Fold each of these.
Amino acid sequence: MTAKKKILLIDDDRDFLMATKIILESGGYEVFLAEDGKSGVEMVKSVSPDLTITDMMMETWGEGFTVVSKIRSIEAGKDMPLIMLSGVDLQGPYQSFEPSEESPRVDLVLNKPVKADDLLKHVKRLLG
Amino acid sequence: MAVNTDKGLILIIDDEESIRDGCKQALEKSGHVVLTAENGKEGIRIARESKPEIAFVDLKMPSMSGMEIIDFLSRDIPDIVSIVITGYASIVSAVESMKKGAYDYLPKPFTPDQLRAVVKRAFEHRNLKMETRMLRDEKEQMEKNFITFVSHEMRSPLLVIEQYLEALRAVAGRCLDKDANDIIERCNKRIQGLKALVEHWLDISHIESGIFEPEKNPVDIPGIITRSVEEIAPLYHIRELTIETDVSDDIPEVTGDGESLMRVLTNIMGNAAKYTPSGGKVSIRAGHDEYYVSISISDTGMGIPKEKLPFIFEPFYSVKREGEEQKGSGLGLNFCRKIMEAHGGKIEVSSQVGKGTTFVLKFPK
């Protein structure tokens, strides 16, 4: 029996974390939660997840890309697959975000809310 | 709230030396700082440099007239209060200059007490004016903050509910019977409706508060029509409607925001689909004349009664129709009109009950 793959989920909305955790667990993954970017980065170090899903905009500790940069700068996060979820405030015609050349590597960007099937499909693919 | 940023700086523009000196002395006695100028040109230079709060301007001066000076001051120096000094003979022109933006006038000859009384009133007036402006700015800022707040506070819980429903489906979907799954589906539908309402409300609030400024890019009309038709095609397929487009090839580009114009088009095309029985047809034509580039969207639907037509662009006005399954957000057409107005254009409607409705979007050339 192989150990469950570990997924780290970073978002500042606890309910969103819970809902997404349920979806991921239904796919057979072990899920770790972080409510802000700082503890998310700490958990990358302590848990060494196989994949991380993080919110694009978080109020508490800089925006999501800062978090991704920090994650990419540590050994455990350097090559880990990473999904970014675009937050509510990014939808609509008034705000748009275009990752630039200098942005840290993100493997996939998905819009919130995420369809359960989509999420599980992408996670499975990224975990190869 | 008391606003008092006044330096008590007063400028006297008068070609009579005795008036300048007299005013200066009287006002300095009551603690004001007084600058003087003997003609308009010099007065304007000093006003620009020192930004006085109050300016006394003699109406009758050689070279530049008092009227011209006042006109200039009220346009160029923010919040300045101008007062006209005038002889009895020119009371009429004093009144005229008040129409041009002077706050008060002081007839010659005047006593130091009269002068000080006018100054006191002028400062009170100025404070009130600035207070009003500050309150207005504050109100605008509050409105903007409110929109941002609501945007976050309304969308976040909706999003979380959707995500929970997804979670529910993921863990229990297969175990639940059809009725339970139907309930989840109904919840989802109502959430989508509420989301659309929030989005429309936000769009409109953004426009009204001036946060939204349409981009000013060249918009390729045939291009946005094609894209809108593609976007709406699945809905038309389900409703068994045909779309016909007739776009003349020499259509000039209009300046504006392609994305929001596409939303205007899909909004109206969506309405057309909603109110046209299956088998019907929706025609989209684009053309131009001397004044306007126009896009018309005509359906063969049930039409809108004449007495209701003037109100359909109002928020939350809904034309009650038989057998209507899903009500819209009530803000769609209001949004369309606002977007068209933001483009300097307009939206027009004509309709015949039982035959169909035509919306025309007009962009000035």
Amino acid sequence: MLFKLAWRNLRRSVRDYSVYFVTLLVGVALFYAFNSVESQKVLFDLEHSEWFEEIQGMMNLVSGLVACVLGFLVVYANQFLIRRRKKEFGVYLTLGMAPGSVSRIVLYETMLVGLVSLAGGLLLGIGLSQGLSFVSAAIMGTTLTYFRFVFSPEALIMTVICFALVFLVVSVFNLVSVSRYRLVTLLNAGSQSQRSPVRNPWVCLAVFIASLAVLAYAYQQLIENGLLMLDDPSFARATVFMLLGSLMFFWSLAGFAVGVLTKARGVYLRGLVPFTVRQIASRVNTAFMSLWAVCVMVFFAFTIFSSGMGLLDVLVGDIFESNPYSATLRADVYWENYRDLANPSSRTPDERARKMQETDPQLYAAGMQADWQIAPQLQQAAPELWEQTVADSAQLDVYEVPGLTYESLMDALGGELLPMEVISHTDTNILAVGVTQFNRDVQMIGLPEVSLAQDECIFANNMASTQAFAQAAVDQHLQIDVCGAPLRFGDQVYRMQICDTSMPSTVLMLVVPDSAIDRLVDAGAIPNYSYLNLMYRDNGQSDVQNDEALKQILGKAQPPTPEALIEHGLSIESVESGEVSYVMEMWPVTMVVTAHEQITQSGGVKLMVTYLAIYMGVILLIATAAILAIQSLSQTVDSERRYRMLGRIGADSGMLGRSLFAQTLIYFLVPLSLAACHCACALGVLSHTLDTTLGVSILGAVLPAIELLVAIYGLYFLVTYFANRSIMAQALKA
Amino acid sequence: MAEVYATPILAEETVTVRNDARRPAPAALSVRRVTKVFGSKDSLTNALAGISFDVAEGEFISIMGPSGSGKTTLLNCVSTIDKVTTGQIFISGEDITRMRKSALAKFRRDKLGFIFQDFNLLDTLTGYENIALALTIKHVNPSSVDTRVRAVADVLGVSPVLGKYPNQMSGGQKQRIAAARALVADPQLILADEPTGALDSRSATVLLETLEMMNRDLGATIMMVTHDSFAASFSSRVLFIKDGVLFNEVRRGDCTRTEFFQRIVEVVSFLSGDAVPEGGASHVV
């Protein structure tokens, strides 16, 4: 009997439930889809699949947060439904139904909606996760060789458990709120009209102007100081002022707008305009905190989403350009401490060689004997494997030029500035390579060779933020001194990647005649570090197999002997498990980077960042849109009497419908507009900062973010508008 | 006294005949054999059982009757909120029973003014805006809205509270704002539903004097539904209905308000007397 009643109630108030239902449906679908990412790994080959596990771990973490957000939303939406039906409950109680039975009706209704939306959401989610497989493939830069239906029982169980918990909480809330109602207030629910605060228009005017000033100050702080350093006090100040300014804005907006509009009689005294304006004003005045929260959340969602996606381009955008070689082996010939490695600042050419002789005479002797050449060491260790795997190799020895600092170049170029993010110490020495070695590298990757006159040098550079500096050296025909010999900059900046890494990272590498390097070596210099760039042979093996072969070669050259393991603090288990197949030395090989690894990894990073951005972004947008929707619906319910009265004095349903449309639309647009201003400012600054330091534009990611926002808010707006109309139509009939 | 209780049986027929011919001056309101049946097949309630009457232009008429007599149904039908089952209602010559729903809304805002028992002001709007709304929904030129609102507020003595919100006003002030809203658009007919129902006696008197003044000085045609004899005594004619038909009518004529009040009270006490036998008035006399 009670169940039947619940079912009838539900069918009667389908429109009221629409926002609740849509939120649940989308929430469940997203929850399932993003928790089933791991199941996609069956579609990809092995090295990709590791990434799916990592992403899944991340998604599970985020899902906890998402479950809380969705739980809050469901409870919030449900409170609206209960409130709307106070009178109905009052009638049940008056008719003598036991409070327990009323609670049970509510419980059944919650369960029914829960089951229907859970089932619907899961179906939608399973569909969505099939689509995500293709998205994953596109992001990974591969295609699905075969497609098959993926289904994740774990995700299903997790979704069901999470939402069962959410409904449990909702049921408890409902039981508590139903049992707390007094009969009198239930029956009179329809005739209570809520009071909205009326604020002094002059105070509103003052606060509104002040809020604009505060926001302008926050924007100005942001524009002046940029957005890069999050711990910067001026950034914190800008944030606090932005939050404060927004709050003041929403507090005073309605009072200000009404004050201005009532003065403009020609606009104000038309049709239902006074009513519409007052409705919105009263809503904005009561709910200014929610509007503020929505604005801030949309701002963060939007900024995080688009800058995340933009940074992604920075991280993995030029992944093929950044990895022109099959593999790069790097030897950090000698360094005392990390600063020494990153910012070499020797005063004489032989400074480092002397130190190495003192601390590691054996390695120094071996290196000197081998002339610091890496390839012969590996070839000797595993001649056959080397022959099978490596087609070509070229070594690039990088020397610092003592006394030729970045600072001295900046001075010589008349204050042309280098971004501090790239070169953190201006007393760092410039690094140089010999032109013959350099040409071997460019030849290997099919770029034109460089010819230099005896007194000529050029910069090799492919990092955007230092390009202007390199060009300035060309334009001003800058003259420098390398070990006592004057060199003049030739008329080009050579764009190339000197080693495999995750992004374009050739920073102001000086290419000099071999004679200049010879002079350094004669003066006792050893390389700061060396790159050995390899090209794999076209031997019918896959990149993975060739990478494996390279590791075997290294295992022969630098075997993980017990002594070596102890010296490097490694365990014997790591060797047995295959995790470690060689140990890293100063020389000949400190580090290995292979193009295949880099490309796979970038796909994984891209996938993770993209999914996180979409998941968090969509949930935040849904949360804010649902809050706006429910508040708009609540107001329409509270205004039933007003619509009835307007209908009586002759406002036709067309007029009322238009007023309702305007109310709903403006209520949705108010927080979005301010958030849009904030976003425009923040993204403008962010885009500028990233553009100057990393040379990438994040604006490309803004468009998908806007599309997402329009889609979600559009959906919620339409659902809300139609639900509002049906509430009003019911009110007019009564 | 006998003539007081006479039932105007023949009025119906004569008026109908006159209606078919060209009428030189149409009544502000003509109700013709209106019936209204509520309920389903099993249980029918005749809220109105063929009621007919006229209200001349410039008249202030009261409708009285006991609970369940059908006076509210009558008001709803006249105010086009409810539909009649059979019969016709003419307001300044137009048959509102044949109008479409959309035309009715337009008709209401162009031809009718409303005063409700519970004021029905919009609590989010100031007094000024509440009055102005009756004009703006008629698409009156914004520049003339202001002058008309201020003029009517001046006449009804509510100028001081124009800038206030309803919850900052007294009940009497609210109802006079409502009266101003009903009057401002210059309607053919003002319909008042128990306008004094929620007012204390002093405010009620002020409001009734206001309505009387609107009728006398401004020529407003008013139809007021009330169960309060005192309120009814401010009008120029009182119609009594019972069980959905016109039972009696009393005209004020030349008598004073106190005398008129006495006569109304007599009819009311007769109407509500539980000794009334089946068959109507003639038995009692």
